[in-house]
């Protein structure tokens, strides 16, 4: 499959659009996609990380890394139209961008804000992808730790539960032309609001007793990309954390 992609590059390289791809987990997916022979379209809202800028300058990936800056709060689906103007053949979409802020159902404004980025924007992007791309795959990034009620992050959890359900529903709706799957990460990287010490202390709650296994995360990504008979699946990559919830 990789060889076919390189042969295809004599025409336009196949590309993956990764929302929030300029740092953290999004950048891990971008690197993996490049290693797999794809071009990447890295969407970001505010800034690129240093590692991301390095990718842009890397001779190994010359003409394979593109950037689009956009706030997904407004007209998210426009990002697909912009991607289609680039000299690539769009084949994959990773709905990775997400907002992680405190809030529960006593604060419907917060719920609306979070749903807009974590749920509605992925729906809009996927629908536009289905309409215009017509052949390919979508991977939604959800969260493994969302089933238990949580007063502080209730709205975030609800947004990701919806996204998981939407993965199933869109897989059914968009078949056979587009596969839709999800990856539900566990404790991969501390959020900005979390200290490293708190994050490391989570390993005692995790059956496989460690946090941050990024290579398992990108292996799950590669599995979903390369396995054409799988759709509507959610892979938890969390060391079994959800089992203790
Ligand atoms: N980190 C973990 O351990 C963990 C655990 C479970 C699930 N996840 C899920 O995995 C994914 C990646 O996690 P992460 O920790 O790397 O994510 P993150 O740093 O919280 O956010 C990813 C990106 O989303 C973008 N974003 C937020 N609001 C946006 C908006 N209105 N418009 C456009 N972009 C926006 C941000 O872009 P800018 O920086 O450019 O503003 C940010 O870089 C997320 O979906 C998250 O829910 C992560």
Description:
- The structure is a single chain.
- The model has no long low-confidence stretch (mean pLDDT 94).
- Strands 3-2-1-4-5-6-7 form a 7-stranded parallel beta sheet, sandwiched between helices.
- It is an alpha/beta fold and 245 residues long.
- Helices cover 40% and strands 17% of the residues.
- The longest helix is centred in the middle third of the chain and has 25 residues.
- The protein is globular.
- The protein contains 8 helices and 7 strands.
- It has one domain: Rossmann fold.
- The site of NADP nicotinamide-adenine-dinucleotide phosphate (NAP) has 25 residues, from helix 2.
Oligomer: single chain
CATH class bucket: Alpha Beta
Mean pLDDT: 94
Helix content: 40-55%
Residue share in β-strands: 15-25%
Total DSSP E strands: 7
CATH superfamily: NAD(P)-binding Rossmann-like Domain
Q: What hetero molecules are in the model?
A: NADP nicotinamide-adenine-dinucleotide phosphate
Distance between the termini: 39 Å
CATH architecture: 3-Layer(aba) Sandwich
The main sheet comes to:
7 strands, parallel
Task: Note the run of SSEs as H and E.
Answer: HEHEHEHEHEHEHHE
Number of helices: 8
List low-pLDDT spans. Answer: none
Rg (C-alpha, Å): 17 Å
Task: Describe how the helices and strands are arranged.
Elements: H1 2-8, E1 14-18, H2 24-35, E2 39-44, H3 50-57, E3 65-69, H4 78-83, E4 89-95, H5 108-132, E5 136-141, H6 154-174, E6 178-185, H7 196-201, H8 214-226, E7 234-237
The structure holds NADP nicotinamide-adenine-dinucleotide phosphate.
Residues 20, 22-26, 44-47, 71-73, 96-100, 117, 141, 143, 185, 187-189 line the site of NADP nicotinamide-adenine-dinucleotide phosphate (NAP).
């Amino acid at each position: 499959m990789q060889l076919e992609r390189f042969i295809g590059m004599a025409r336009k390289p196949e590309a993956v659009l990764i929302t929030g791809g300029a740092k953290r987990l999004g950048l891990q997916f971008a690197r993996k996609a490049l290693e797999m022979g794809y071009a990447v379209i890295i969407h970001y809202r505010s800034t690129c990380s240093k590692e991301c800028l390095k990718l842009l300058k890397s001779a190994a990936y010359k003409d394979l890394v593109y950037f689009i800056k956009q706030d997904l709060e407004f007209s998210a689906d426009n990002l697909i139209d912009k991607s289609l103007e680039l000299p690539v053949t769009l084949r994959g979409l990773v709905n990775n961008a997400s907002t992680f802020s405190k809030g529960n159902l006593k604060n419907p404004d917060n719920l609306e804000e979070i749903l807009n980025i974590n749920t509605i924007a992925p729906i809009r992007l996927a629908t536009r992808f289905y309409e215009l791309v017509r052949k390919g795959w979508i991977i939604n990034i959800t969260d493994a730790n969302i089933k238990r009620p949580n007063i502080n992050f209730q709205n975030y959890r609800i947004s990701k539960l919806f996204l998981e359900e939407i993965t199933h529903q869109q897989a059914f709706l968009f078949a056979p032309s587009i596969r839709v799957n999800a990856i539900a990460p566990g404790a991969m990287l501390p959020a900005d609001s979390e200290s490293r010490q708190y994050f490391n202390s989570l390993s005692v709650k995790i059956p496989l007793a460690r946090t941050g296994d990024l290579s398992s995360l990108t292996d799950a990504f590669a599995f979903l990309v390369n396995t054409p008979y799988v759709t509507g699946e959610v892979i938890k990559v969390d060391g079994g954390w959800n089992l203790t919830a």
